[in-house]
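Structure tokens please, single chain.
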Amino acid sequence: MKNLIQRVIVGLVAISVLSVYALPQNRDAIEIVPPKSYLLPNLRQTSELKTMLDGIILDLLKKYPNDLFKQTEIAATLIDLRDPKDLRFASFRGGEKIYPASVVKMFYMNALERQLEDGKVTMTKELERGLKDMIVVSSNEATQYILDVLTDTSSGAELPQKEFDKWQYKRNRVNRFYSAMGFHNINVNQKTFCEDAYGIEQQSRNYKGENRNALNTDATAILLAEIVLGRMNTPERTKAMMDLMRRDPFAKMDDPDSQNTGFSGRALFDLKLTDARIWSKAGWTSRARHDAAYIETADGLKFVLVVFTENHANDHDIIPNIVKAVIAGLKP
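Here you go.
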């Protein structure tokens, strides 16, 4: 009897150990899984829209003397959402990988809402605060927290190679999520910082600035359009994401880099479109100035416009001017 009990105990311990080690093998339990049967939208590239967008950008760049604003320093993508069954699309260097600054936070927000919906992450007051601050005020510290939650990783000291490889695999969880949905030529696995990365975060970049976040305007525009159209999550979670990205271009702001008034929203202010609405996520650094915006006007325009610029971070006019020209070009 004693031997039997011992064998049972050993067996139970073995099962427990197997369960512990088997848990990571259950990929669905830890991975971020796309919505069932998700397919990228069928975008229709039109010469009309392409000609318009190319012309707008090239005409604006001509206003900079001596080639001070090069074509290689800007990328843009436009999606006309007036007919969800016929999404017209155009881009200017839309597939180029560019450091996205804080625009990447929209990708983290969407991934978190997916995990919340699937019950793999539980909303808390602190998580709610972090999510809001990441999108509304573009807090880098909040973003660091959100990425830790998404990937079960944390910053800290450098690790030996084998341990680091395991850490890096987990940190790539968000990349695998978007890759599974068909988003390519992007990298979304790094925290955002006000100054610089240290320790394992720098190790993750191979100490040479490699493996930094990278987006292209095509992928960014598609994600924003899919959020707007409610194809990324439930109506309730779609509304939650849209509420966080809602901007007021007529708000009184002293900050020239306010997401309300310093980017695409300024075009609505300049045009006095008080009945227009805008949802957006901007990104800016000492070198980059980007915006991803969805705009609705009272006369029926509905479009996503993503503009990334490099080496012109203090040029506050280029993005609003492109928005104004697109609004004029889309009108019947």
